[in-house]
Amino acid sequence: MFPWNPTAGGGRLYVNAPNRTPSVPPYNPQNRALGCSHALERLPSYEWEPKPSTYPVPAPRSPTTSRARKRQHEDYSTPVVKRYRLDSSSHSLNRSPYIFPPPTHHPQPVVEGSVISGYPHLCFPWYPEVSTVPQGYNNLQTYASDKLSKQMIELFEACKQQTSDLDRKEMCRAQLQKDIQYVYPGARLYLTGSSMNGLGCRSSDADLCLVLKEVKRQDSIHALSLLQGLVKSLSYIGKTQLIRAKVPILRFREKASELEFDLNINNTVGIRNTFLLRSYAHADVRVRPIILVVKKWARHNQINDASKGTLSSYGLVLMILHYLQTVRTPVLPSLQRDYPGCFDPDMEIDMVPDGSKNIPSYNSRNQSSLGELLLGFLRYYAVHFRWNEQVISVREGKVLPKNNSFEWRNKYVCVEEPFERNNVARAVHEKIKFDAIKAQFVESFQALQSRWDLDSILPVSTIIKAESLGR
What we know:
Layout: E1 4-6, E2 12-14, E3 46-47, H1 74-77, E4 129-130, H2 147-159, H3 163-180, E5 188-192, H4 194-197, E6 206-211, H5 220-232, E7 237-243, E8 249-254, E9 259-265, H6 269-281, H7 287-300, H8 313-326, H9 335-338, H10 352-355, H11 370-384, E10 390-393, E11 398-401, H12 431-451, H13 460-470
Parallel strand pairs: 6-9
Antiparallel strand pairs: 1-2, 3-4, 5-6, 7-8, 8-9, 10-11
């Protein structure tokens, strides 16, 4: 990996890297045979500009990859499982191969009124800095000629994650990475999920993936319990909890902001799908607003909680992307199908952020308004989609027939994970919950079709107020 430097022409080049000056062609499915080798800056996404730091930047370690099949991050696709709070005393530090003392460095106390003012803002060369609204982002008002679309924009603008929200999460991530590196010098800590893929709200919590080459999958619970001892010793962290789940996590809060973080170890598929969704989020200006509105709608109607047997946020996002890929005039292509080299599931994890940058521009001929797309989404799953016969595949950009394999057999909702190809909707395992999900699509479609008013399916002003109070 190489750091970025601005060039005189406004573009960006890697320092000490071969010249990769862009020539951005229009989207052409025939280009997929070429992978990503010729295209740079498809998306105005991440700006890799390290900010000045008072700390030395550790040398990048050799790229790490994991080919093992890993379960999806809990916030994305957790089935209903029992969780247990683990007492750190159940894992003796004295008997551990990962024994470590508390770090000698702690951040300075937080100054009253600042977010994390005691932390230097570390930004390592491999870690991308994200702007909330990319350069060249089209005007949303182009797709808001009707009342419903304007309501959707109002909700989106009020609830979307702000640059300051992301900066706060990134500062905590950077400081925590530095403290962890006292114990694991080669550790990399990645911000993942909705905070990083552009689909988050102001109230969104943060997901972290700690990449540790020396920790085996079967040892993740033990390693997290030891890591909990380290985290508890940090002055800026509070309320730690170790949660046993299919993907074990260490949950904690950053004291100054009360932000909640969920940290897993080596669940690297979460890094891959973060950058895939980031690419889709910025492929068309309408994607982010419709996803935010649908997530708020699903949460309000109690069908967006995998821990309670309904749809995960990740599953919902894939359902929306699938609809936008398969509408008569597609809003989105299948990026994995057309540019497989950019999203190779075996790509070394340190190279994943670069892969998502190298996609040519895509201009959809679909000019539907936001309101029309929202109504179409509800209609598709209320009327047209055959739940008992079809599998949603964003990877292929189409539905797949449900076969008799273990992954799809006797499953009520089938949504393919784009990299691991398992079912991210497996949490929906009770017929009563499945029937409630289908009924909500039908009811909301009928209400929105008759009234063409977002308030007919969710209380817009109440949600906006709750979002503002959340941060």
